[in-house]
Amino acid sequence: MNKQPKLNIKLVSIGQIVPRLHYEVNSREWWIMRGDSKLEEGVFLYPIHVGWETVIEQNNRYFYMHITEGNENSEILPGYRCQSGGKFSDVETAPSYAITSLYQRIFSNSKTKFSGPLVLGWDNNELLEASLENVPFRAFAVKVDNILIYITNISICGQKKTIKNYIASFIGEYKKKRALYVQKIQSGNCEISIHQKDHETIFFFGSTPTEAWQNIGYYKKYRGTQLFGLEHPMTRNTINEQRIPTCLPMFWDNEVLLNNIFNYNLRKRTLSNINWRQLFQIWLAQKSTIIELRGMLKKIYPPNYLHNERELRAWRAMLRAAGCTEVTPFPKDQSEVMNVMYFC
Question: How far, in Å, CA of 200 to CA of 194, rounded?
Answer without folding.
Answer: 9
